[in-house]
Write a structure and sequence with these properties.
single chain, mainly alpha, 2 helices
Length: about 90
């Protein structure tokens, strides 16, 4: 965009006016018990979701390892069966 247009947009934008200053005790402005409870519940839910996700990822990984072992055993059995059969070697 043209720098002059950008400058015009920046100058045309109104500057925000500050709100009234707070005259009370700044220590009284807290989320309170409700805010703590909501934050605590979100933290507990997050921890539970992470534990569940870890369990599921571990289960998937173990299933893949077992599937690879079973495939390797099946290939070994097939090669052993081919070695035991008399006859011409299989064509590749």
């Amino acid at each position: 965009m043209n720098p002059i247009v950008l400058l015009g947009i920046a100058l045309a934008a109104p500057t925000p006016t500050p709100g009234p200053a707070y005259d009370g005790d700044p220590n009284l402005i807290t989320p309170g018990v409700i805010g703590f409870a909501i934050t605590f519940l979100i933290a507990v839910a997050t921890v539970l979701l992470l534990l569940d996700m870890t369990r599921r990822v571990r289960r998937v990984r173990y299933r893949a390892e077992i599937r690879e072992e079973l495939d390797a055993e099946a290939r070994d059995d097939e090669l052993r069966d081919l070695d035991r059969k008399p006859g011409p070697p299989p064509e590749v």
